[in-house]
């Protein structure tokens, strides 16, 4: 058997997230069905770097699977994509050591969140950006974002329905980029709690709108309480952008 | 009664085109259902400048409808959009003379066609551009396009299933614009035959790919025969961009 590491992109619009669940269309379900078909019915699992939620997109999700076939590594995307539906696509693949694990070996993840800051909604982007029609102060947002960098207990930025115990994470960078009429939030960190990016963006937008001040952020972190932070913005603006390994 | 002229945009992905047809989700059906609801059950028709096909989008479709309500004209979009699904949107509205007719009074239409000219398909644009992974010669396309301008019998550029008798149309402009990795074809004309824009784009792409020469276009028009022209490109790259009235 050989282990394959693959980069996988998907448009989350019509998926109930990554992870297999009964009665739902999920990315893992589609991918495993294809891999199992390629392996002539031999059940083949795909393990990702982590789940993504309903409507959340991926540009650089990483997964691994095992195969007895010795085809050249670069042939895998074409073989898999031929059988996948049009909203999911394997972009690259590599043979890796059999000890490689897409989830446990990830050392950094990058998420991006797209906010469309215009007065009138663009129906063509409705599934891919968060429409936010209010005036926003980008400098205030950048200032607020700077307080999120570092190693903190991020309990305030974690959805209450979680069974995670250790709430300490290290955020390496929070960057805010202006792309025409869109604002892109870039988050790089060692790991993220459930809904963490979406709560961070919700909090930053509230600072941008003047509902909070940038200087409130240290206190929000300190509170270690979900109600201290802002709203959770919708999943459809979120992209798992990249996963790094040593 | 007052007549309302309205600009309507829709993402054609999940529509079987504009026109009402049994058992299908169409834009006209959604719009008329909303107008009828607003008019408390009084059946209200929406007449567009013309049909659009399945998967074809609109940025500037024009329609008209009649109403006994005397609300300010600019209030209509909000009232209608509140009840419309997220893939269709009224962008503007105006009271017009009761003789105004969205279809019969149109003097010019503009269509645009988006071609994504890259090697690897972008799944996020899969419903909004035509993925064309071949090298193309833009200058050859521009040259070929120039022959399409003017008043011609466009039988060669009309799908065979049509009951239209007069095949003469006047094309005012064919423009080819490069937008990053996309090529946009802009067509302005007095009117268009069934599938005309999509057959023109198919023919132009074949010239760009080297399968035809720009100088072949006058002969293709002269042939007045559908097989003389190129393939019909898919509907999902096409946008009804603007409709003009005197």
UniProtKB/TrEMBL annotation, chains A, B:
<dbReference type="GO" id="GO:0003723">
    <property type="term" value="F:RNA binding"/>
</dbReference>
<comment type="function">
    <text>Formation of pseudouridine at positions 38, 39 and 40 in the anticodon stem and loop of transfer RNAs.</text>
</comment>
<dbReference type="InterPro" id="IPR020097">
    <property type="entry name" value="PsdUridine_synth_TruA_a/b_dom"/>
</dbReference>
<dbReference type="Pfam" id="PF01416">
    <property type="entry name" value="PseudoU_synth_1"/>
</dbReference>
<keyword id="KW-0819">tRNA processing</keyword>
<feature type="domain" description="Pseudouridine synthase I TruA alpha/beta">
    <location>
        <begin position="144"/>
        <end position="246"/>
    </location>
</feature>
<keyword id="KW-0413">Isomerase</keyword>
<dbReference type="GO" id="GO:0160147">
    <property type="term" value="F:tRNA pseudouridine(38-40) synthase activity"/>
</dbReference>
<protein>
    <recommendedName>
        <fullName>tRNA pseudouridine synthase A</fullName>
        <ecNumber>5.4.99.12</ecNumber>
    </recommendedName>
</protein>
<comment type="subunit">
    <text>Homodimer.</text>
</comment>
<dbReference type="InterPro" id="IPR020094">
    <property type="entry name" value="TruA/RsuA/RluB/E/F_N"/>
</dbReference>
<comment type="similarity">
    <text>Belongs to the tRNA pseudouridine synthase TruA family.</text>
</comment>
<feature type="domain" description="Pseudouridine synthase I TruA alpha/beta">
    <location>
        <begin position="6"/>
        <end position="105"/>
    </location>
</feature>
<feature type="binding site">
    <location>
        <position position="111"/>
    </location>
    <ligand>
        <name>substrate</name>
    </ligand>
</feature>
<feature type="active site" description="Nucleophile">
    <location>
        <position position="53"/>
    </location>
</feature>
<dbReference type="InterPro" id="IPR020095">
    <property type="entry name" value="PsdUridine_synth_TruA_C"/>
</dbReference>
<dbReference type="GO" id="GO:0031119">
    <property type="term" value="P:tRNA pseudouridine synthesis"/>
</dbReference>
<dbReference type="InterPro" id="IPR020103">
    <property type="entry name" value="PsdUridine_synth_cat_dom_sf"/>
</dbReference>
<dbReference type="InterPro" id="IPR001406">
    <property type="entry name" value="PsdUridine_synth_TruA"/>
</dbReference>
């Amino acid at each position: 058997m050989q282990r394959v590491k693959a980069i996988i992109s998907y448009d989350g619009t019509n998926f109930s997230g990554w992870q297999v669940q009964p009665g739902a269309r999920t990315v893992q379900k589609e991918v495993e069905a294809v891999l199992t078909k390629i392996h002539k019915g031999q059940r083949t699992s795909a393990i990702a770097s982590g789940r993504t939620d309903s409507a959340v997109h991926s540009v650089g999700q990483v997964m691994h699977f095992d195969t007895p076939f010795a085809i050249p590594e670069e042939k895998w995307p074409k073989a898999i994509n031929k059988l996948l539906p049009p909203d999911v696509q394997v972009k690259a693949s590599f043979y890796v050591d059999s000890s490689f694990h897409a989830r446990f070996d990830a050392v950094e993840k990058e998420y991006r969140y797209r906010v469309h800051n215009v007065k009138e909604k663009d129906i063509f982007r409705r599934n891919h950006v968060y429409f936010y029609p209010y005036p926003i102060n980008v400098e205030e947002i950048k200032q607020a974002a700077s307080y999120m960098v570092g190693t903190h207990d991020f309990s305030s930025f974690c959805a209450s329905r979680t069974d995670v115990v250790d709430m300490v994470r290290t955020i390496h960078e929070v960057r805010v980029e202006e792309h025409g009429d869109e604002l892109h939030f870039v988050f790089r960190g060692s790991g993220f709690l459930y809904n963490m990016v979406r709560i961070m963006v919700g909090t930053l937008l509230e600072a941008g709108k003047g509902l909070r001040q940038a200087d409130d952020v240290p206190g929000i972190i300190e509170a270690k309480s979900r109600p201290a932070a802002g709203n959770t913005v919708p999943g459809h603006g979120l992209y798992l952008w990249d996963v790094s390994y040593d």
